[in-house]
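Q: Sequence in, structure out?
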Amino acid sequence: MRRPLAAIAAVMIAALSPGAAAAQAQDAAEIAAIKRAVFDAPDLPVMGNPSGDAVLVEFSDYNCGFCRKSAPEVAAFLKSDPGVRLVVHEIPIFGEGSRYAARAALAARAQGKYPQFHRALMAMRGKAEQASVLRVAREVGLDVARLQRDMEAPEITARIESSLQLADQIGLVGTPSFIAGDRAVFGYLPKAELAELVAEARGGK
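A: Exactly. Output:
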């Protein structure tokens, strides 16, 4: 799953492409279900403008170096374009520390602090693991005891597994992966390229 920065690649998501879907004998209902899972699943965390006119999707891992490098670029892009809704899929592919961080981040939604916690985890130094994740949770003002209880909810595990399965289904090659419209891009993206990706999706509507 690890790729160097030089290997940034644009890939078409076969499951989202009507032509490819026909070749794979997928019907319209299946395509619609995949699109909903990527862009609109009700239990996905959202940042930016929840009612934005454009949707950017990110598949990420808190122990992914290029996810961390991309995080300030994503934040700057969201600030520059108030019409973007960012949907985040937590796909912990770098071990148990990543899974612990993903569960904690999703559980933070119950306290209304997912965006702050997400940004802080991406900005932290060192590996995301239990001790460091809980330290960051305290720093952003989360009730850690409640967070740890909420992390055990079965819907947290189900959300992570759904995102992991979805990433495999649509052929994503690693983290970070960004999706807008019918196009996916794997790897670190600066603000300008994020803007281009979203502009292309807007133009395709």
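The chain has a mean pLDDT of 89.
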